User: What shape does this take?
Amino acid sequence: MSSIASIDLILYGIILGALTFYAQRLSLDVPSHTLLMGIVGGTLTLLWGVLGMCGLRRRTWPILTLIVLAVFLTIQTAKAWLALNAGVQIRRRLLLIFGILLVFTVVQLLNLLKESRTETTSKVKNESGHDELSTSTDPR
Assistant: This one.
């Protein structure tokens, strides 16, 4: 994992934990499992970012963590949106927080998947054993 992706994961973990804590403080209607998922998800992504800075090359666990967080945040955003449409008194800031977290999660997931794909395609070898993406100085 590149150092930029690791720093992104560290920052995302801090933002996730802070915004879910703020959402819990903003409205008492937010279930406690939202705060728990935000703290656990933020801690895990922070851990994956630190391990990436230390040399962890695999992206499987960070990608799986972000997939779980994306599903969870999609559900929370849909519940908040439906509650707002049903006329239940819900703060619009709460909906905004869940929406921002969902967008951040999806963008972070796509960033890791793109980086994984780029690294995989650069390692593909052709029959002669040379990288397909490398330029050759051979005039043939």
Observations:
- The chain has a mean pLDDT of 82.
- The chain has one domain: 3-115.
- The chain has four helices and no strands.
